[in-house]
């Protein structure tokens, strides 16, 4: 086949002008490397956000004590949270709600065998594990009975387990939380980073009653700073939200026209917004990188035009011995394609290497997907054809006699 | 002269105009002649008389402005550029004064080039190119590039390239123009042999009478017209 031989011809032509070929490919190389790197960073960010959303728990509401402000919920200084455990029970009893966990957050120093570790402490109920969709790595979660009796039991996250116990099995061990002894009965599975970049595994969960009596020693018995609730499905989210509003307004006796003393937020919707923001950002990064690919393509066209002019006589000779116009067209098209595809291959290597470096050195999550590699190869191919076609057609359109006469 | 009834080459009233700054220049002003298969024709004439113009038309590198050209009975003026390319590839070999080899390719690859355009596979065309180089006596130089060869050797590579696809006709425009007399004699001896032993039709342009003497018919051009067309008695060679 002539086409196969023309690849050899192209290779020969390109290796006779090594420096020029290399410089021409440089544009493609940088373009492809940039596209791969930018997509890798963008997709890494997306994957992180997606992971964070999944680990957050699905179809999630957070009901906060306090009225709505632009910044979130507001609680008057010193005033007690407006939400109660009974509110949480009432929300859980709604038809579209699976589980509702009253939450009492805080932080405390943990001590075990001379080691100490400061962490977030959450007082909650067994519903917490449900709404957060959080399986156990070992042991079990505490029960409703533990909540009722104010048992001194605790469930710890992976970070706490690692920091306090190392290789030791934490189950059954007694730790001190602000002097109060608690028995570790379970270790939560790893979840990783949350959307705001915090390590979700750095926590301790205890029955909300025990937290309020023995750790926070607050006077806020039976009150919850916020309630986390899970709807039955994505479709019931809206109905569930209005049901929560209605039941709480009833229970808190808030009349028509009066301001709510609570705020319901659809966490899943907020997370989706974050996800689409990252998606847009990664597209934007890719698009900017794609511009450099186009610039690389123009570089190829430029050199191919020079090459056609320089090799006019060669084209004349080839035509004189029987090259058809399309053979000449293919010859130059294949040369342009070879340039762009070799540039693409080197650019791929650079981009993947760069992504690896970014991950190692900058600690950013990156993801080089087969789709982005395929896209880069496809686009390079198209650029080779697109920017190679004009010079190739010029070559093919030459008049044999005039071409032979040129110097 | 006409051994068979139908001539291989038949041109009638061919004219070629070149557009120039000062209007149209008529390089050929009505040339009619026919050449039979197996002939050996020398074309002579003063510089600028239209010899190369005529050869380029015969070699299907260019098209006449007016007049008809039949090659082997087929009307060349009606052919598409692809058909002309195929003619140049298979029926016609062209030898230039300046050799016109591709400087970056070896002798072998130069000779194999027309075979590539003929669609021949890599190995087959290398074999055939090597055999053709052997025929012109350059078998051992097949891996030299043109720059590593003498003028006479380069012209022999060019002849091998013209012969590679086993064409029936060879057009040579001043093939010895860049060669010394001894090398010219060798090249012309080879051309005569091709004509005699293989029946290849040869048309060559030359300025020198002793080169023209190898041919058996002499056509003389002057100002774009044929002014002489005579048979040469076999004496030389
Ligand atoms: N492309 C062209 N444009 C204009 N005029 C041309 C062109 N090619 C040839 N001519 C003119 O046509 C005439 C014939 O040219 P041609 O090359 O056929 O001459 P020639 O007989 O081969 O001469 P020489 O012996 O010097 O090679 C010349 O006067 C030349 O100037
Ligand atoms: Mg001439």
The major beta sheet of chain B can be summarized as: 6 strands, mixed
- Identify the most extensive interface between protein chains: A-B, 25 and 28 residues
Radius of gyration of chain A: 33 Å
> What's the CATH class of the domain at 1-91 and 202-237 in chain B, please?
Alpha Beta
Subunit organisation of the chains? heterodimer
Domain module count of chain A: 2
- Roughly how much helix do the residues of chain A carry, as a percent range? 55-70%
The CATH superfamily title of the domain at 1-91 and 202-237 in chain B: P-loop containing nucleotide triphosphate hydrolases
The CATH topology of the domain at 1-91 and 202-237 in chain B corresponds to Rossmann fold
Bound molecules: adenosine-5'-triphosphate, magnesium ion
Shape of chain A: elongated
Total helical elements of chain A: 13
Number of strands of chain A: 14
The average pLDDT value of chain A, as a whole number, equals 88
Q: What pattern of helices and strands is seen along the backbone of chain B? A: EEEHEEHEHHHEHEHEE
Please, could you describe this protein's structure?
The complex is a heterodimer of chains A (407) and B (237). Chain A folds into 2 domains: 2-52 and 274-405, no CATH class; 98-227, no CATH class. Chain A is an alpha+beta fold. The longest helix of chain A is centred in the last third of the chain and has 44 residues, at 267-310. In chain A, a hairpin with a 2-residue loop joins strand 2 and strand 3. Chain A is elongated and about 100 Å long. Chain A is built from 13 helices and 14 strands. A 6-stranded mixed beta barrel of chain A has the order 5-6-11-8-10-9. The model of chain A has no long low-confidence stretch (mean pLDDT 88). In chain A, helix 9 (267-310) packs across helix 11 (325-362). Chain B has 237 residues and is an alpha/beta fold. Chain B has a domain at 1-91 and 202-237: Rossmann fold, CATH 3.40.50.300. Chain B is built from 7 helices and 10 strands. A 6-stranded mixed β-sheet of chain B has the order 6-7-8-3-9-10, with helices on both faces. In chain B, helix 6 links the parallel strand 7 and strand 8. In chain B, helix 3 runs parallel beside helix 5 (151-163). The model of chain B has no long low-confidence stretch (mean pLDDT 92). Chains A and B meet through helix 1, helix 10, helix 11 and helix 13 of A and helix 2 and helix 3 of B. Bound molecules: adenosine-5'-triphosphate and magnesium ion. The site of adenosine-5'-triphosphate (ATP) has 12 residues of chain B, from strand 1, strand 2 and helix 1.
């Amino acid at each position: 086949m002539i086409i196969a031989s023309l690849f050899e011809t192209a290779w020969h032509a390109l290796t006779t002008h090594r420096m020029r070929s290399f410089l021409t490919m440089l544009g493609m190389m940088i373009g492809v490397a940039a596209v791969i790197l930018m997509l890798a960073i963008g997709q890494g960010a997306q994957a992180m956000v997606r992971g964070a959303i999944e680990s957050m728990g699905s179809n999630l509401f957070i009901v906060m004590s306090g009225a709505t402000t632009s910044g979130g919920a507001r609680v008057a200084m010193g005033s007690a949270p407006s939400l109660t455990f009974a509110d949480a029970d009432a929300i859980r009893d709604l038809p579209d709600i699976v589980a509702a966990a009253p939450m009492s957050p805080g932080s405390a120093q943990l001590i075990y065998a001379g080691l100490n570790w400061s962490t977030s402490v959450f007082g909650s109920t067994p519903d917490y594990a449900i709404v957060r969709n959080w399986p156990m790595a070992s042991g079990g979660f505490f029960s409703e009975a533990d909540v009722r009796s104010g048992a001194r039991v605790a469930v710890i996250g992976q970070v706490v387990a690692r920091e306090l116990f190392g290789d030791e099995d934490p189950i059954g061990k007694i730790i001190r939380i602000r002097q109060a002894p608690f028995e570790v009965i379970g270790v939560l599975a790893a979840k990783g980073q949350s959307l705001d970049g915090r390590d979700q595994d750095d926590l301790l969960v205890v029955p909300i009653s025990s937290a309020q009596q023995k750790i926070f020693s607050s006077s806020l018995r039976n009150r919850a700073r916020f309630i986390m609730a899970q709807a039955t499905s994505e479709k019931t989210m809206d109905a569930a939200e209005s049901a929560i509003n209605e039941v709480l307004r009833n229970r808190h006796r808030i009349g028509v026209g009066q301001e709510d003393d609570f705020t319901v937020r659809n966490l899943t919707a907020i997370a989706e917004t974050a996800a689409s923001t990252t998606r847009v950002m990664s597209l934007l990064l890719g698009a900017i990188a794609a511009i450099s690919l186009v610039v690389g393509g123009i570089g190829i066209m430029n050199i191919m035009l020079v090459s056609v002019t320089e090799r006019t006589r060669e084209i004349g000779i080839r035509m004189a011995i029987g090259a058809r116009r399309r053979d000449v067209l293919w010859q130059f098209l294949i040369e342009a394609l070879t340039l762009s595809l070799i540039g693409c291959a080197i650019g791929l290597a650079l981009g993947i290497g760069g992504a690896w470096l970014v991950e190692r050195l900058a600690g950013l999550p990156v993801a080089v997907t087969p789709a982005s590699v395929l896209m880069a190869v496809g686009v390079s191919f198209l650029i080779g054809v697109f920017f190679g076609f004009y010079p190739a057609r010029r070559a093919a359109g030459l008049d044999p006699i005039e071409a032979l006469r040129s110097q | 002269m006409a051994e068979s009834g139908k001539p291989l080459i038949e041109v009638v009233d061919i004219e070629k105009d070149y557009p120039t700054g000062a209007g149209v220049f008529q390089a050929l002003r009505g040339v009619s002649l026919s050449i039979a298969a197996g002939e050996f024709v020398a074309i002579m004439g003063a510089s600028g008389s239209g010899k190369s113009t005529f050869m380029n038309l015969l070699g299907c590198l260019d098209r006449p402005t007016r007049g008809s050209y039949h090659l082997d009975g087929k009307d060349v003026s009606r052919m598409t550029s692809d058909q002309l390319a195929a003619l140049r590839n298979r029926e016609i070999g062209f030898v230039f004064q300046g050799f016109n080899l591709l400087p970056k390719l070896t002798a072998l690859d130069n000779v194999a080039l027309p075979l590539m355009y003929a669609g021949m596979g890599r190995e087959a065309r290398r074999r055939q190119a090597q055999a053709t180089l052997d025929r012109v006596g350059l078998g051992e130089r097949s891996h030299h590039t043109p720059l590593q060869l003498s003028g006479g050797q380069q012209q022999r590579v060019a002849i091998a390239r013209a012969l590679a696809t086993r064409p029936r006709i060879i057009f040579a425009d001043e093939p010895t123009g860049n060669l010394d007399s001894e090398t010219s004699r060798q090249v012309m001896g080879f051309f005569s042999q091709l004509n005699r032993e293989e029946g290849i039709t040869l048309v060559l342009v030359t300025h020198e009478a002793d080169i023209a003497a190898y041919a058996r018919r002499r056509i003389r051009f002057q100002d774009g017209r044929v002014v002489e067309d005579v048979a040469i008695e076999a004496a030389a060679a």
